[in-house]
Amino acid sequence: MCESSFMKPARTIKEIDTPSSWSQLVQGEWAAQMLQAQLDEWWPRLFGYHMLKLGGLSCEFVSGHCNIRHQVCIDRDNPLRNLEADPMALPFLEKSFDACVLAHQLDFCGDPHSLLREVDRVLVDDGYLLITGYNPLSLHGMRGLLPWNRKRAPWSGRMFMPIRVKDWLGVLNYEVVFHENLAILPPTRYPAFSAWAESMLSGSFSGIGGIYLIVARKRTFPLKPIKPSWKLRRQLTPISVNCRTQVNKKSSG
């Protein structure tokens, strides 16, 4: 069952099966297509030498026209992987990657805070972090309330509201440069109608989109500068002397 992002703690001891392919999710291929279209606009904006795609869902995104040519794909079962590793203890030095893709990894993680800290460790300063996930306050997310869906992915995982994910990023001093909710309505048999309905509802009802994409950038300076508590006192002595002088002249006259 999907867990409410504002009712449940981020960490859980419950065993969660992490899907290694979009085909293991209900309507997963539809969600992957929606996100792929958005990511295609972001690949040319990323620069650097190394990119990390964490999890099988991230591995299946097509990123051939990304400016970052060396891409490391980590998963246990997905055949597109080129490395197996524990996402909570990545075998890389600090600040090794210029960008990192986390496709629905927070939704199927027992400790999302630790996962974000580990990704932050291997990401360079000013590097990009691209996060996708399911929105619990959506038509697609609400389907997890149905008893027969509770053990099916994605509702067997944990869905967090995008605003909560952005709060976590703010604690780690990340600047959110892009956020968009997609898939307001579930897919239909008529792709043209679905595309039209999505474009018509994207303005007023984007907050209830079923999936989200957040692009954040790692910053090395505080996003909210701390103002000093001390202030320089003005030197008022010359003015006070002149006032006393005028008073003395009047009294002497």
From TrEMBL:
InterPro entries: Methyltransf_11, SAM-dependent_MTases_sf. GO terms for molecular function: S-adenosylmethionine-dependent methyltransferase activity. The keyword Transferase applies. Keywords: Methyltransferase, Transferase. GO terms for biological process: methylation. Residues 80-131 form the Methyltransferase type domain. Pfam families: Methyltransf_11 (PF08241). It comes from the Bacteria. This is SAM-dependent methyltransferase. It comes from Photobacterium halotolerans. The lineage of its organism: Bacteria, Pseudomonadati, Pseudomonadota, Gammaproteobacteria, Vibrionales.
